[in-house]
């Protein structure tokens, strides 16, 4: 049996799972940027700052954003 199929799991799936987690992270970052762009005034750096913070801070910063974000603006 090839080495990729020995042990407790199929090791060929590890790179695929990495891509799945990367895609999930990008989708979350896109959501935070688009949502915060609707909630903060045009030209504000807040959407970019929140997006970078979520990318580097992970789930904890995402939960913080969801708790402290301002109400949605109705233009």
From TrEMBL:
Transmembrane segments: 12-33, 45-68
UniProt keyword annotations, A-Z: Membrane, Transmembrane, Transmembrane helix
Top-rank lineage group of the source organism: Archaea
Name of this protein: Cardiolipin synthase N-terminal domain-containing protein
Annotated organism of origin: Pyrodictium delaneyi
